[in-house]
Amino acid sequence: MARLNRVSPIGVAQHVIQRGNNRQICFANDQDRAAYIGWLKEYSKKYEVDIHAWVLMTNHVHLLCTPRASNAISKMMQALGRQYVRYFNYAYKRTGSLWEGRFKSCLVQQDDYLLQVSRYIELNPVRAGIVNDPAQYSWSSFQINALGKISELSTHHMLYQALGKNAKDRQAAYRALFPQHLEDKLLEDIRLAINKGMAIGNQRFKAQIEELTGRRMTPKKVGRRIGWRKNKDD
């Protein structure tokens, strides 16, 4: 079966995840993470992708980003993936694949969902039991978005910019989003969207994307169709 082309409208944010093949380790130490971040910074600038939120876990990566050029995210991820695999294989004297096929992605509605997806990404180390507070984890964008750490990688989304009149106000408003864990329904919606390559947002947003691309942005209903028994008996 031919692979479907990615849906990647310019200016629409995307949640991207790339996993290690068979959930194998992709980052063994801080040197590996620093190398990946360095190339992410390089290729995001080269291919015109704004990175809003990110986290490096042991065996996978999450990004929240917006393309400013056609096919920009795919170009960035392909270049980054190849470069990092060469580094990783050389460093650990291995050969073969590192990543689990193509990266996964989904479109993210700006208004009600973008900051929620940012929270989802930066709370990964907490959900995994690595830290109790996202501020304790160095390899995510939380310290940038919430604490004002200087970074040449991250670009604040305009929705983040609207959180306050100055940097301190925006950071405080962003931190205020984190005391509560994400609701189970939101977690389920985010995971379904990324695994199915669909969209996270309200029905109007999904309908707009479907009209624009001709691609389904909601899962098919599970269950037998109406009248199935009557037709079967006929």
Explain this structure.
With 234 residues, this protein is an alpha+beta fold. The chain has a single domain (14-233), classed as Alpha-Beta Plaits. Helices cover 43% and strands 12% of the residues. The chain has helices spanning 30-46, 72-91, 110-122, 124-127, 142-145, 158-161, 167-175, 184-196, 203-213, 228-233; strands at 14-19, 49-56, 60-67, 104-108, 199-200. The longest helix has 20 residues, at 72-91. The radius of gyration is 19 Å and the shape is globular. The relative contact order is 0.15. The model is unreliable at 230-234 (pLDDT under 50).
Broad structural category: alpha+beta
State the strand order across the main sheet. Answer: 2-3-1-4-5
Level of helix content?
40-55%
CA-based gyration radius: 19 Å
Quickly give the CATH architecture.
2-Layer Sandwich
> In this structure, how is the largest beta sheet organized?
5 strands, mixed
- Overall strand count: 5
CATH homologous superfamily name? Transposase IS200-like
N- to C-terminal distance: 34 Å
The first-level CATH class name: Alpha Beta
